Amino acid sequence: QEVAGTPALCSIEAGLKIKMNLTTLLHVIKPDESLGKYYKVVESEFQPVQQLANFLVSLSNFSDSLFPDASSVLEMFPKVKPLVLKNVLFHFNDNKNNFADFDSHKAQLMDGISAIAANNKH
């Protein structure tokens, strides 16, 4: 949640750094005799972080074909809380993106994620 609440961390670069650090961590503990037994646990516990990093990196290709609607975003990243995904979208700004309807589609996704999250609470 800290990443999603910090605009500077809602970037493709931050996603790449998270992925690199997580990969390094898993690479270091897997062959280690004393830590290797925790590999599956660590890998499992860090799935939400891995999916969040994947989401951040995938925003480099943000379009309505990659993310057609809120349901597809939630299905692609099921381990990440909907509010976190919404906040990342809110803070993410890519001036280099060539997608013409970037802001309007981003707003539609955020509204859709909010609606789905609200319906799932009941």
From TrEMBL:
InterPro entries per record: Dilute_dom
Listed Pfam families: DIL
Positions of the Dilute domain: 8-94
Name of the protein described by the UniProt record: Dilute domain-containing protein
